[in-house]
Write a structure and sequence with these properties.
Blueprint (H helix, E strand, L loop, with lengths): L5 H11 L2 H7 L33 E3 L5 H14 L2 E5 L5 H15 L3 H5 L10 E4 L14 E8 L13 H25 L6 H4 L6 E7 L21 E4 L8 E4 L2 E4 L7 E5 L1 H4 L6
Parallel strand pairs: 1-2
Antiparallel strand pairs: 2-9, 3-4, 4-5, 6-9, 7-8
Helix pairs in contact: 3-6, 4-6
């Protein structure tokens, strides 16, 4: 067996500043070893279930006039699942679609433009990279990321990539409003005043992690994102129509098919322990 120098391969990938998309563009037909998940670590596909037996995270309509019922549903979903999907959230479909198109345009854009933003300096407001934990994780994920810190210290408009500047600015404003709505509902779900979580500044940060998963030549032995929990207070996730997201619930991995017009809300580690049904 040929000698495998994982560190050298990681540095070689990093040095290209083109990420996984660069491998695809170069005509890669088999996975470099750094991306291969060991057989004993692969999560088997769940058995096919009849439609009537399928379960998924609750979908909650935030536009309902019955606020008490919405708060009750948010509490139940947060306590039992740690996730919920929200519709009636006030973010127009056109803005959601524009954001997805803009992120795709960035990742599929010119390599020289992306290379200018390529960095592992976490202090930067805007950066592009392949795997934030490239040198720490045991398996490299098949994904590239555009990382944008929009609050509390936002970048200037000129710092944002041309391909997604306008979409980011509009999306940031509207998702910030949605986040405040969710913090209000969660505050009430905890039996507190509706402004409690925002009063203690849980809503001050806003970071966009814009993931891109290029077509993979061997998807059966790779993974887009390793299993993890989110360390913050709240994650608001916009899926495209591709799917592939799973969550761990009651000892099993459950598919989360995209729901048109919905956001997925993930209760982060900092908030999770508070949401216990009394």
């Amino acid at each position: 067996m040929a000698t495998y120098d994982r560190t050298a391969e990681l540095h070689a990938l990093d040095a290209t500043k083109t990420g996984v998309q660069g491998l695809v563009a170069s005509g890669c037909t088999s996975l470099p070893r750094i991306f291969i998940v060991p057989p004993d670590k692969r999560i088997p596909l769940p058995p096919a279930l009849p439609t009537s037996a399928c379960t998924s995270i609750p979908v909650i309509d935030l536009s309902s006039p019955d606020r008490k019922q919405v708060v009750k549903e948010v509490l139940r979903a947060s306590s039992e699942w740690g996730f919920l999907q929200v519709v009636g959230h006030g973010v127009p479909q056109a803005v959601m679609d524009s954001m997805l198109d803009a992120v795709r345009a960035f990742h599929e854009g010119k390599y020289e433009d992306k290379a200018l933003l390529y960095s592992r300096d976490s202090e930067k407001a805007i950066m592009y990279h392949c795997n934030f934990d490239l040198y720490q994780s045991k398996v490299t994920n098949w994904r590239d990321t555009l990382h944008c810190r929009m609050a509390p210290d936002p970048p200037t408009s000129e710092e944002l990539p041309d391909s997604c500047r306008n979409a980011l600015l509009m999306y940031s404003k509207l998702v910030k409003e949605l986040g405040n709505t969710m913090f209000g509902l969660l505050s009430e779900a905890l039996g507190l005043g509706p402004s409690y979580l925002t009063d203690i500044e849980c809503n001050q940060g806003q970071i966009f992690v814009c993931q891109y998963y290029p077509p993979c030549p061997e998807p059966e032995v790779a993974i887009g994102t390793s299993q993890h929990s989110d360390p913050g207070f709240l994650t608001i996730l916009l899926q495209d129509c591709t799917g592939g997201l799973q969550i761990h619930h009651d000892g099993q991995w459950i598919d989360v098919p995209p729901v048109p017009g919905a956001f997925i809300v993930n209760i982060g580690d900092l908030l999770q322990s508070c949401l216990v049904v009394s």
